[in-house]
Write a structure and sequence with these properties.
37% helix, 20 helices, extended, 22% strand, Immunoglobulin-like
Length: 676
């Protein structure tokens, strides 16, 4: 069975807007059978045993792969729910029907759209608005899957066509916009529908969530806003596109709501996102609880800053944040604004460079103090949680190394450690041998750290590093002691005990060897040549031996296993030639030994078998038309040239060769054929 993931969004729609209906075990609700004209929706509980049993049957049919039967049962449930005036059950049935259609029908999008259009034409509030929101998303899913079909289609004018497969991109884009806007109709009713009235229907319900999206209108408007804020249509737009490159969009909330703007760019998603965010701000302007207002205004500022082309957008954004902070200083939402202001200072702090003066150096310190205020003033708020998390991020200790991958034996080497928020670093150097396996360091890091800490060190030392409480990273050069040939780990710790808990353990792998090499691949015959040299003198190492280390996949252990390949010996010039594989290709690592020294390289070599020419002939036809654009009914004149190549080379002209030509329309349907 095929499964189209593009339709999965429809199945997840209810969870996506925060209203998810349980499949069993919860009370379901219906609106009153009389049409709603004024006031908020007041859900009324009814017995749902029959519906629970029907949905249990749907679940059983689905688990057995009987999608057609499940689809038929969903259709019955939808009919029952329509008679009973149960919008919750109707929406659920529609979404399940869309899911099952995606399994068994080729044109599942078209079938789903037709179903949704039929429901929205007859439905009342709130089912009508919810279905319009779903329909918009299904149309956009169809747009994404089929956009390549529409690129070369011209726009049809004054032509009514109910077949979506013949639409152009502009028509389809306009339909997506229209459906989202229709989901926001009857806003007086949706603004009065408090979300707590649907508490038992919410998949995720919290007091913080209720504060920032307190009504059905907030959910539907946010769905539309999230779409428009994150998308644009690939269509021809007017010369003067809607742009957020004006300071009015990044002013304080009061100035933004007074700012007047117009645009003829009716296909601009950014335009609709800006209008919706403005409507939400007006809706919540006089709320006693300012949580939704602050949440929306922060979203507005971030959105405009991200999409504005103004050179001064950062400073305008910062000033608007400070104005918002002043407006809400007596409300717990102030802590969240404080978090945004501190985050802006962190952005500035990340621009600091040690050799460019003091600019930006102390911005992390400023941010930390702001976060302290934010978490202390309203310690139980959501903003306080954000502040504490950001403080932990700023205070986090880091230790990183910079050193050469291979060091010369028995000679001290220069290395550099980059540290943050620590005064001293303790080091251990351990010899891990040539069979060192780093696999665990990626997949089970904590377990791996405990394993390497148990190894006996060959060197231990400590280093005092710079820490001036600016929360910035600082570099310190230090000397690595001379070591004998081998493979090592250098392990660092922010405390002398090298404890794993509440500590930063760092490690880096390096090699010690006087062996070096230069390699070159010959693509004509598949060989690889190596020149083996002394790392300290540059002289060739005659008689050095190189063994290929091959890794082959073991399907039982799901890992690659190592085995030794062929061994080669360097000539008097240190040269080794590795012959090409006899078939296909191979990867290997060179393992080179010379006297008492050894280097197992981490650089993978690739070889492929020499290309065997088989005199494969290929004919390509090139068509030329007398023009690019034709009027309807105009004769098309064209000619074709055929060229034959042998193994992709030596093109020659093909003459007197019969050719069958098919002419297709924009939907790739054959309309004519010619034999030439």
């Amino acid at each position: 069975m095929r499964f189209k993931s593009n339709l999965l969004f429809a199945f997840l729609f209810l969870a996506f807007i925060g209203i998810a209906f349980s499949f069993a075990g919860k009370s379901l609700y219906r609106s009153k059978k009389t049409a709603v004209s004024t006031g908020a929706i007041k859900p009324v509980s009814i017995k749902t045993n029959d519906y629970d049993k029907l949905w249990a049957r749907v679940d059983s049919l689905q688990n057995r792969g009987l999608y057609a039967s499940a689809l038929e049962l969903c259709d019955k449930i939808m009919n029952y729910a329509t008679i009973d005036n149960l919008p919750v059950q109707v929406v659920k049935a529609v979404i399940f029907k869309m899911k099952f259609n995606s399994y068994i029908k080729e044109e599942d999008y078209i079938v789903s759209i037709a179903e949704l259009e039929k429901i929205s034409a007859k439905a009342n509030f709130p089912l009508k608005q919810i279905v319009h929101s779903v329909t918009a998303e299904v149309y956009y899913g169809y747009y994404q899957r089929n956009r390549y079909r529409f690129y070369n289609r011209s726009t049809t004018v004054d032509f009514k066509n109910d077949d979506i497969s013949t639409w152009d991109l502009k028509t389809l884009s306009g339909k997506v916009i229209q459906e989202y806007l229709l989901s926001l109709t009857d806003e007086n009713l949706s603004k009065q529908s408090k979300i707590e009235d649907y508490k038992d229907l919410l998949q995720y319900y919290s007091e913080d969530g209720k504060k920032i999206k307190p009504t059905l209108y907030d959910f539907l408007a946010r769905r539309a806003y999230d779409f428009f804020a994150g998308n644009e249509f690939d269509i021809t737009r007017p010369a003067e596109k809607f742009s957020l490159a004006d300071a009015g969009f990044l002013q304080s909330r009061e100035k933004f709501l007074q700012y007047s703007y117009t645009s003829t760019d009716t296909f601009s998603c950014k335009l609709y996102a800006t209008k919706i965010i403005g409507d939400l701000l007006r809706f919540h302007a006089n709320d006693q609880d300012m949580s939704a207002l602050v949440y929306t205004d922060l979203e507005r500022l971030s959105f405009v800053r991200k999409n504005s082309g103004l050179t001064e957008k950062d400073s305008l954004y910062f000033e608007a944040l400070k104005a918002l902070s002043n407006d809400v200083k007596n409300h717990e939402a102030w802590s969240e604004v404080q978090y945004y202001i501190a985050s802006y200072h962190c952005e500035l702090a990340s621009k600091y460079t040690a050799f460019a003066g003091e600019k930006f150096r102390w911005e992390y310190k400023t941010a930390f103090n702001l976060l302290n205020e934010g978490s202390k003033r309203y310690p139980k708020s959501y903003g306080a949680q954000l502040c504490e998390a950001k403080k932990s991020e700023i205070e986090n200790k880091t230790i990183n190394f910079t050193l050469n991958d291979v060091l010369v034996p028995n000679q001290p080497s220069l290395a550099m450690v980059t540290t943050k928020n620590t005064n001293k670093v303790w080091f251990r150097i351990v010899n891990v041998g040539y069979n060192y396996d780093r696999g665990d360091s990626y997949y089970e890091k904590e377990k791996y750290i405990k394993k390497i800490l148990a190894l006996k060190p060959v060197q231990t030392f400590s280093l005092n590093v710079k820490n001036e409480n600016d929360y910035q990273s600082h570099n310190t050069d230090f000397k690595l002691p001379g070591l004998t040939s081998g493979e090592y780990l250098i392990i660092s710790s922010a405390n002398a005990e090298f404890s794993v808990a509440k500590n930063h353990i760092g490690f880096s792998h390096f090699k010690v060897s006087d062996i070096s090499y230069i390699d070159a691949k010959d693509n004509t015959n598949g060989t690889v040549e190596y020149l083996v040299l002394s790392r300290s003198t540059g002289k060739p190492l005659a008689g050095a031996k190189m063994t290929q280390i091959l890794y082959e996949y073991d399907s039982k252990s799901y890992r690659y296993k190592k085995r030794n390949g062929k061994t080669y010996t360097a000539d008097e010039n240190g040269k080794i030639t590795v012959e090409a594989p006899t078939s296909y290709y191979r990867y290997f690592y060179p393992d080179i030994t010379y006297q008492n020294d050894r280097l197992v390289s981490d650089l993978q070599a690739y070889q492929n078998a020499p290309y065997a020419k088989n005199n494969y002939q290929h004919i390509t036809t090139y068509y030329f038309t007398d023009r690019k654009i034709y009027r309807p009914g105009q004769t098309v004149y064209f000619k074709g040239i055929q060229v034959m190549t042998t193994d992709g080379e030596n093109p020659t002209l093909v003459t007197n060769n019969p050719v069958h030509v098919e002419l297709k329309d924009v939907n790739y349907q054959k309309v004519a054929e010619l034999d030439l």
